[in-house]
Amino acid sequence: GLASLIETACIKAGKIEVGDIVFGLAPRINAVGRLGSALRAVKLLTTRDRSFSREVAGVLEDENRRRKDIDNTTLEEAVSEIEHTMNPFDARSIVLSREGWHPGVIGIVASRLIERYYRPTVMITIENGQGKGSARAIAKFDIYQALKSCSDLLLQFGGHKYAAGLTILAENIPAFRERFEKTCREMIPEEDLVPKIKIESEISLDEITPEVVASLKRFAPFGPKNNRPNFFTRGLEVLDVPRIVGSNHLKFRAGQAGASFEAIGFNLGYYLDRVANHSRPLEMVYAVEENEYNGRKTVQLRIKDLR
Asked: Which end of the chain has less Cβ packing within 10 Å, N or C?
């Protein structure tokens, strides 16, 4: 079953890295549980029938594509509502509610809104007068304690410091939005509303040599408690036409003093106008990684932030 999943995800067997699992295999397994029954993933991972496993792996692939479509549509609706109804940077929190949002993706969308606005976010989908919500926190903020202060307005809630779920009567959502904002203002100091990125060093692009890339790979596997190091470079030029690829990912070629690399910012498509219309050299924070496509390996800069 796992072999069929690897094949369907177009991952090269025998050279599977952490990124392949995090961005390739895990989302496909996760998608079927978000959009329907997770039993389909269990059957895939426990079967030894090659024909059956390929069939189920195809289902996971289709469901993951559908999940992405629902993600993007919901995100667009959420961003539109925010931009037309509030100034998120004057607020300490974001609470959105609507009928028809898929309960399996609202947590993902809440996380993506935090990437964009950096405010504790609650997404609520309403059905038959009752809301089901997913809450996500920013750093140094305990979302569970914040919900606890609003518990009299909720039917139930649970979770931990960084993420939580809740159910609420639709009629209580306006009062909850007001109370949650008040609680966030009490709990979050102004300085904590600015996201922080740890930077290992300021470097120039010509310092990113094959030897440096090889040395960085020795620190793998990367993940929680062992994050990929971030670097800062100023004076960057955009060497081609910046564009959006995939699901709102920003991509362009960055250059400096004769050295250049492809740069990609996942879910950073909203930076497109800023990069396309830049009149001065860019400053960028990024991680250095290898990208393999059609059997060819290249060095790629994964954008974390830019200005």
From this structure: C
